[in-house]
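Hi there, hope your week has been kind to you so far. Do you reckon you could talk me through the fold, stretch by stretch? I've dropped the whole record in just underneath, so have a look:
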Amino acid sequence: MTREHLEIRGLGLINIRDVFGVSAIGKPKQIELVIEVKKWTDVAEVERLGLDRHEEEIFGVKITKFVLPVSAGRNLSTLIETAVRIHLLRDSGFEAAKILIEKHSAMLKSV
């Protein structure tokens, strides 16, 4: 009965298909990425290079996790979209940070 419905506090119950169109409704999917959004001041250590991989276990399944520190003026939708794209690239074997470090190391060896 509740399929396609969502409660938005302050707005009430909505039918997602009616509000956002049929393309907003999809079949069940497997969760592949966890994005935790935290206040910048609450994050003890901020990932700078993107080399460390973090995981969260949900119902016994380990899932890739990003912790995004946010503050006023940061575009949350852009940060989340970028995190998803980075995750997809990593899954396909492309890691920009590792490539840059390899290039830098090679350059230092040639000097």
